[in-house]
Amino acid sequence: FLRCAEVYGARLVQPQRHTVLPGNHDRYTEGSARERRFERWFGGLGAAVPGMPFSKQIGPGVRLVMDDVARPTWPFDASGLCGRDQLARLRALLTAAPSADDFVIVALHYGLCPPRGLTSWLCRLRDARSLTELLDAEGVRVDLVLHGHRHEASRSRTKRQTVVCCGSATDLRSAPGYNIYTIDPPRHRFTIERRAWSPQRDAYVNATIGRRAGGQHPTGS
Q1: Distance CA 163, CA 190 (A)
Q2: Distance, first Cα to last Cα, the chain
Q3: What element of type H or E holds 189?
Q4: Strands 189-198 and 203-206
Q5: H helix or E strand, kind and range, residue 65
């Protein structure tokens, strides 16, 4: 954690520009969770508040709701859990937003759709179905769901939500890259541009894989 914090440098005191969420590697051990090691080093970027989920404005008309689904697990178990209490708090946040005009992003480490194959049970969000039902419920205001964990970039849909994973930015086995989101809060719409790593150029280059206009909040159109 100390070495990562050193890499972040001045970004650690710029919560208006940077946000960090804990993943399974930050919570693997009981000691890490009990001593709140992640919060000790990165709490200033939005993870220090006890009792996730936590909401913060990240720009004019854009609100980020963070969900902490990482937890200590047994060896080889990389699964996550939202939990009944956090689900209840999340529903309250998403049905009583400070402003109905905000573009609302829900961010968490795990995706809603479990990976296929033998690793599904060990790498998934255990209560993904309950979280998906919450996000798809009438009266819940969400425009975009973002997650990590999986190293491959992907996009999927639930009944009402667009779910995006940007994948790893550094895993050379998984077409590394990152996403740039252009958000139009008044219209509750967004577009996505992809930057992919090019070994030939030794740089990230434009690799837009299509644009997606979204927005299920507030009208579902």
Answers
A1: 12
A2: 43
A3: strand 189-198
A4: antiparallel
A5: strand 62-66
pLDDT tens track of the chain, all 221 residues?
Answer: 999 999 999 999 998 899 999 999 998 899 998 998 999 999 888 765 666 898 999 989 999 999 999 999 988 889 999 999 999 999 999 998 567 789 999 999 999 987 666 567 788 999 999 999 999 999 999 999 999 999 999 999 999 999 999 999 999 999 999 999 999 999 999 999 999 999 999 999 998 654 444 444 433 32
Half-sphere exposure for 32 (CA within 13 Å, toward CB): 15
Give 182's strand partners: 191
pTM for this predicted structure: 0.89
Say if residues 57 and 84 touch (Cβ distance below 8 Å): no
**Lookup: tokens for 7:** 């890499």
Q: What are the φ/ψ torsions at residue 91 (nearest 5 degrees)?
A: -60, -40
Instruction: Tell me if 148 sits within 8 A of 163, measured CB to CB.
Output: no
Token readout for 19 is 């946000």
CA distance 16 to 57: 8
The residue assigned the tokens 């998984």 is 174
Helix axes 128-136, 84-95, angle to 10 degrees: 10
Total residues found in the chain within this entry:
221
Distances 129 to 8, 79, 121, 134, 152 between C-alpha atoms, Å: 34, 14, 13, 9, 21
